[in-house]
Write a structure and sequence with these properties.
Blueprint (H helix, E strand, L loop, with lengths): L1 H6 L4 H19 L11 H22 L4 H32 L32 H10 L5 E3 L3 H8 L19 H9 L2 H7 L1 E5 L2 H6 L2 H8 L4 E7 L2 E6 L1 H4 L10 H7 L5 E4 L5 H9 L5 E4 L20 E2 L7 E5 L16 E2 L3 E4 L16 E11 L2 E10 L7 E8 L18 E4 L7 E10 L4 E6 L2 E5 L2 E3 L5 E11 L2 E13 L5 E5 L2 E5 L9
């Protein structure tokens, strides 16, 4: 825009375009809101468009005074300069795709690698609804506002026009994300969750029925609780009877309804950012009567993959403890005291701990086939030596192991930050492979020289492959990571590392044995 004004500062049209550019650029910079700070990004584009128009008009007046040949050359250069950014990136991607080989299979319809987990690329695969007969029945006979529980809720809504109730009950969010009540309904046929979401019908494929627990299968087979309306091969449609909604049964131990009942009102609950933000928000959604706590520097809970239309602000956690800690199910609880390492609630997404023993566990702890036993830890001259035994009894749920150094949060427990958006500060190669067995080594860790060595009386120390930089002042966590392909399967802290402003290093080794159940499911952001 500056170049356009310099070239044609007396042209009123150029000045008008410059004013429009300034208005939209100012709007893009100041009109933001914390729940979605980039939601007004189109103003940037409008500002760029006005600047480009002004530059083109200003250049056109200058080109008119050039000789024909020089005018043609200048025009080609200008056009190339303007359109090159829109050509270079697509051309590079096309070249990359051709280099990997042209595959006609990519033209097949249906879910591919850019499916539900990549909606931010502008694509969200909608599976075809499997039964035209059931879809027609819902479309022709169900009330326009009737809600239908379905394992494929988006396809059901697109096909039948009936509202999608798979999201959160209290919060508006325009992008696909499943809320805790829907997960309880689809996993356990939980009566309280179904009542909260107001379902009237259930689309029940046989494959989904087979995945339900036994008591849910018995409910669904009871004609006094569910009325079978349509059967189309392996697909069925049921009407939910009032008798089912009146059932007074305890919630399934792994359901979010069990967490809602277990945590007393007015309890303090710390929402750890070790967990994925979407899973954290699921816990937040079922604990509305608790005092929800976070860190002072992260007062607003942002859910980038949910695009939440709300400003959620947990109470800042200062130096006090909390009654409960919500963290990732894949996190080994080594940072808690030995008596508090048993979760009071857990499911596939989250684990909840009571550091001060606020309540008893609502279900048995998960099986933890992978364990780390840490002993004989000694800190000398800024280095930490320890003996670690990595034992696995199943070899399932993970494909590789390594060591990471990640930042810790400022809570009293120094929980690690293991979100996908938080890169590790240091990385070291692992020694365990995904098969039943035990590996025991004496390690020597020096974070300032970025080394992790194996000490062996029979041979010289072996330096493990590593990467990263010297640690900045702060609190860090050394941990064992299990991977499932490129996803996180488990994360087990073994030591807290504190680096002072003067460069001194101190350690707190989590000695003892602690385990985790590797989860092969993809981690959510």
């Amino acid at each position: 825009m500056t170049a356009a004004i310099v070239l044609a500062r007396r042209d009123r049209l150029i000045l008008l375009l410059a004013a429009s550019f300034a208005v939209f650029l100012t709007a893009a910079l100041i009109l933001r809101y914390e729940a979605a700070p980039h939601d007004l990004g189109r103003f940037d584009g409008h500002a760029r468009n006005f600047a480009l128009l002004a530059l083109m008009l200003a250049l056109s007046t200058r080109l008119a005074g050039l000789r024909p040949r020089r005018r043609s050359v200048a025009a080609v250069l200008i056009v190339g300069l303007v359109i090159w950014p829109t050509i270079a990136i697509p051309a590079g991607k096309v070249g990359l795709a051709i280099g990997h080989g042209v595959q006609l299979a990519n033209a097949q319809p249906g879910p591919r690698e850019f499916g539900d987990f990549h909606w931010w690329r502008g694509r969200h695969v909608i599976t075809r609804f499997p039964s035209d007969q059931i879809a027609d029945w819902i479309h022709d006979r169900a009330r326009p506002d009737a809600r239908v529980l379905s394992p494929i809720p988006h396809a059901m809504t697109v096909t039948t026009g009936r509202p999608n109730a798979s999201g959160f009950t209290q919060f508006l969010h325009p992008r696909p994300a499943t809320g805790p009540e829907y997960l309880d309904s689809i996993r356990y046929l939980e009566p309280a969750a179904i009542q909260r979401l107001g379902f009237t019908y259930i689309h029940a494929p046989d494959s989904w029925i087979d995945s339900l627990p036994n008591r849910a299968k018995c409910w669904l087979a009871d004609p006094e609780l569910f009325e079978l309306l349509v059967r189309d091969g392996s697909q069925a449609l049921y009407r939910i009877g009032p008798g089912f909604l009146r059932l007074e049964v305890p919630p399934t131990p792994g359901a979010y309804e069990a967490l809602r009942e277990a945590v007393p009102d007015q309890s303090t609950v710390y929402l750890s950012h070790a967990n994925g933000s979407l899973n954290t928000f699921r816990a937040l959604a079922v604990l509305p009567q608790s005092e929800l706590m976070g860190l002072p520097d992260e007062a607003a809970l942002h859910i980038p993959n949910l695009h939440l239309q709300a400003d959620v602000r947990p109470t800042p956690l200062q130096n006090e403890s909390a009654d409960f800690v919500v963290t990732a199910a894949q996190l080994g609880p080594s940072m808690f005291q030995p008596g508090a390492r048993r979760p009071v609630f857990w499911n596939e997404e989250i684990a909840v701990y009571a550091p001060d023993g606020a309540i008893a566990a609502v279900r048995d702890p998960p099986a933890r086939p992978f364990t780390v036993h840490l002993r004989d830890a000694q800190a000398t001259d800024g280095r930490l030596a320890f003996t670690a035994t990595l034992a696995d009894t199943s070899g399932a749920g993970w494909t590789g192991q390594d060591w990471l150094v990640v930042p810790a949060d400022a809570s009293p427990w120094a929980l690690p930050r293991i979100r996908p958006t938080d890169p590790a500060a240091q990385w070291y190669a692992g020694q365990a492979s995904p098969r039943p067995g035990t590996v025991t080594h004496r390690y020597e860790f020096d974070p300032q020289s970025v080394t992790l060595r194996l000490r062996d009386e029979q041979r010289d120390a072996v330096h493990l492959d590593s990467s990263g930089e010297k640690l900045e002042p702060g609190v860090w966590i050394l941990a064992v990571r299990l991977r499932s392909a490129y996803q996180l399967a488990a994360f087990i802290p073994v030591a807290r590392v504190v680096v002072t402003e003067s460069g001194n290093v101190s350690y707190e080794a989590y000695e003892g044995e602690y385990g985790v159940k590797p989860s092969p499911r993809p981690s959510e952001p």
